[in-house]
């Protein structure tokens, strides 16, 4: 978890003529502004994905570049993400009752 910093991420998916049964988002259609993340969140991302050795003593801009390239290289199964979100929302709903 990136703490409150993850709330600043906005992901907007373009609606292109992609087949309905496709499970991955085409490269470049997701827009995430990683520059809004604080340094601590960028460091956590780099450590979590073992990207720390990529640059010694990086600037924020260098960290954003490494994180952005890694983030955009990740494959996404949209159905799995939606299913996981619904399950998490249901768990949260029962916890908050």
Automatic annotation (TrEMBL):
Skewed-composition ranges (Low complexity)? 1-25
Annotated localization: Nucleus
Q: Does the keyword Transcription apply?
A: yes
List, for all copies, the residue spans of the domain called Histone deacetylase complex subunit SAP30 Sin3 binding: 37-90
Q: In this record, what's one Pfam family?
A: SAP30_Sin3_bdg
A GO molecular function annotation here is: transcription coregulator activity
Q: Has the keyword Transcription been applied to this entry?
A: yes
The source's superkingdom equals: Eukaryota
Residues covered by region (Disordered): 1-31
Q: Which GO terms describe its biological process?
A: regulation of DNA-templated transcription
Recorded GO cellular component terms are: histone deacetylase complex
Q: Which InterPro entries match?
A: His_deAcase_SAP30/SAP30L (IPR024145), SAP30_C_sf (IPR038291), SAP30_Sin3-bd (IPR025718)
- Which keywords accompany this UniProt record? Nucleus, Repressor, Transcription, Transcription regulation
The record's comment on protein family reads: Belongs to the SAP30 family.
In its UniProt entry, what is this protein called?
A: Histone deacetylase complex subunit SAP30 Sin3 binding domain-containing protein
Q: Which organism is it from?
A: Sesamum radiatum (Black benniseed)
List the lineage, top down: Eukaryota, Viridiplantae, Streptophyta, Embryophyta, Tracheophyta
């Amino acid at each position: 978890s990136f703490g409150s910093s993850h709330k600043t991420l906005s992901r907007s998916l373009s609606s292109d003529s992609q087949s309905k049964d496709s499970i991955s988002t085409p490269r470049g259609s997701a827009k995430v502004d990683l520059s809004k993340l604080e340094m601590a969140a960028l460091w956590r991302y780099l450590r979590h994905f073992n990207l720390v050795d990529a640059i010694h003593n990086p600037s924020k801009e260098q960290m954003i570049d490494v994180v952005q390239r890694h983030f955009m290289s990740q494959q996404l199964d949209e159905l799995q993400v939606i299913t996981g979100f619904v399950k998490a929302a249901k768990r949260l709903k029962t916890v908050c009752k």
